[in-house]
Amino acid sequence: MTGRHAAGRCPDEPHELHAVTPIVADSPSDLLPGEEPDRVWEFLKAATRASVSYFKDAPAERLPLIGGGLVYGAGLALHHFGVPWWTIALPTVAGGIVSYAAGMNRLSMPSALGVTLASLTCGGWLATVAETGAGRLVNMVYAGAFALGYGIYRWALRRAKKRKGTADAAPEAGPEVTPGSTPRIGWEGYFSRWGMDGAEVIAAEPTRLGERVLLNTKGTGKRASTYVGKALEELIAEDFDVATPRVRVTNAGLPAGQLLISVQLIDPWATAIPHPTLDPNSEIKLPEVGDVREPQVIGMDPETGEPLTITIWAQDGAKHTYVLAVTGGGKSVTLNNILERLTAAFNCVVWGINVSKAQEMRHWAPALDLAACGPEDRKKARMMLRMARKLYTFRGKQPRKTSNVIPNARQKLLVVVIDEIDELTKTADGATDLGVVEDLGKIASKGRSEAVALVVAGQRNTQSHGGSTDVVTQMTNYVVLKGVSTNDLVRMSIPVPDMGEYGGGNPGVLATMLKSEAVPHIGRSFALAAGGDEESGLGQIDRIVADRPPNSLEGAEIAHLGDTYLKLKAGQMPSAESAAKLERETADPADAEQDERPVDPTPEVTSSEERSQTIDEIRDRHLFLVPSLTPEGQERLRQMRMAQREQVVQEEQAAASALPAEVRAKLIALLDRDGGVATRDVEVALGVSNATAWRYMNQLRGEGAVDSRGNGPATRWVRRGDDVA
């Protein structure tokens, strides 16, 4: 209902001539002068609120639209007032220089260039319009330049938003977390304090102990390597209120321009990690019967929960391992974990040597094929090294289809584990034992292809400590614990961090790494026999060994090693004549070929059942000291025998029959790749182990279908007649 305004009404009471009648407005012009301004005002207020809301919802994307209009209007105003163009051009050049300098200090390289170009473009427009005015051509150029610049600006915003994801929360100093619950960290809020303006988050994920983030540092104008170091780690530790060793900053193994930051908000070293075989609630389950061809689990990364492994054998042969640590660094505990896995493998024979106190080695002795424990066994240790040389010489003469011996149930990997290497390479008066050094050097240089490996433990990675350069330089696998000097790490030429700092000084914190790898595996060894009482100390070894009989060499190898080996197995010292004969056989390769005992290169015993029977007969003659087994040990021995026989049957069947058609088809398809195919590619494509993949490719090579190029992990398989590009 609409009526006349109060000012136009009759002052008298309503009557016939002056009654108030309703009036319907057909158009705004029918309203009285006071009605239209009210509606216009309401419309203007609504439009203003909508405009403010529009720009407030996304200021970064929409405010430049206002800026474009303001710059256009400012140019017209300057032309109207006749401002000379040079009074604008000079400040524009100075402003561009200042914008670039300020941007390089506060922004990333792309952002700094963008700000500089924007300031120069605006100044150029103002100077041009002030001189010429805004003609049609100038307006078209301005509209096109503004549209192009605004489009690039919006694209850059979308790209940055996509990389950052939804992590825009404000940073919190030292967020509190509990196991299993890690809050999201707003990494971007810390970049300014860390001197990383312009860095971008590629990916961030929670870990068991905190969080880690992968950054793109290209936008900072600096290389990623400039951020790696103690300075940034200490800054991060301050912000999260944790110890500096619980922060890791690294670019190892990453593409150029990327950085990995890991923060451990929970102390990873608060409690030791029990060994899985003794802990029913362990997160990692170890097989009762192992395979030495696979990586051996000796610990766990507390940050990710992933198993910490070392490689004892790979497709390019045996790996010689050096365990380095100062006294109290966890070297003995680490060796215990290595020995536990080696003695569990059905295709591995272990000889143990420690001519020092040898407390741990004495407890492992019942599960070892041969053991020399204590200073009184120095002569026995020397004979063991000589027999290792004699064994790899014998294996090198046997016919086979592969360049390297592949450990199996018949021909097992021999691992000589030596603790306190400096005690073995030195005589009682401190002089170098040249005979021991020579034997170690020969085994290190010649044993790799014949499945004879060394595991050496010591405190220094030097020639004087390891005996000779022939020993030190042949080590391809390192286990580094706390206390290892910087010089030793430099000599190894591998990027291993300081384990003392990383692990907060706790024993058992280690890094494992092959020389062919670019990134070390870091974590903590299982606390096997690490305590001070029987339950947590050496008694743990006794409980493991009680159910673990030693593996033995095959019949032909036992016959070749002769009486010296059999006497040592029986716990007796060989006669002087046997020892002298062993010295002559291994003193020179020419002498070794003139062995008085004729050995058929193809052993008479060929089936797995006959080989097992031969070994059982030797045991029955008490030449093998096998402790009485518990029912659990007997069951484990049965499982090991089954694994050995199953592998022998599989190998015999594989050697007697061609590859399955589907396997062959997949392998041929892989070989069509340019540059050949690696053994690792075969593993992934077929879902088989490294040894099986290698056996498949060797079988194709024996059939004349493929050739190999290169050695070790760099080996590439190609079709015969092809070459690697």
Describe, in plain words, how this protein is organized in 3D.
By secondary structure, the protein is an alpha/beta fold. Helix content is 44%, strand content 12%. It has 24 helices and 18 strands. Strands 6-5-16-15-14-9-13-12-10-11 form a 10-stranded mixed sheet. A 4-stranded antiparallel sheet has the order 1-2-4-3. The protein is elongated.
Assign a percent range to the helix content. 40-55%
Uncertain stretches: 1-9, 15-32, 163-183, 590-608, 618-626
Count of discrete alpha- or pi-helical segments spanning 4 or more residues: 24
What share of the residues does DSSP label as strand, in percent?
Answer: 5-15%
* End-to-end C-alpha gap: 91 Å
* Most strands sheet: 10 strands, mixed
In the sheet with the most strands, the strands line up as 6-5-16-15-14-9-13-12-10-11
The Cα radius of gyration reads: 39 Å
Number of DSSP strands?
18
Mean pLDDT: 77
**Classification by helices and strands:** alpha/beta
Question: How would the global form be characterised?
Answer: elongated
Could you give a short description of this structure?
The chain has 725 residues and is α/β, with parallel strands linked by helices. It is built from 24 helices and 18 strands. The radius of gyration is 39 Å and the shape is elongated.
Topology (elements, then pairings):
Layout: H1 35-57, H2 59-80, H3 86-106, H4 109-132, H5 136-164, E1 200-206, E2 210-216, H6 230-240, E3 247-250, E4 258-264, E5 296-300, E6 307-310, E7 313-314, E8 317-318, E9 321-324, H7 331-344, E10 348-354, H8 359-364, E11 370-373, H9 378-397, E12 413-418, H10 421-425, H11 434-446, E13 452-458, H12 463-466, H13 469-472, E14 477-480, H14 486-492, H15 499-502, E15 509-514, E16 521-525, H16 539-545, H17 555-569, H18 576-587, H19 589-592, H20 608-620, H21 631-656, H22 661-671, H23 679-686, H24 690-702, E17 706-709, E18 716-719
Parallel strand pairs: 9-13, 9-14, 10-11, 10-12, 12-13
Antiparallel strand pairs: 1-2, 2-4, 3-4, 5-6, 5-16, 7-8, 14-15, 15-16, 17-18
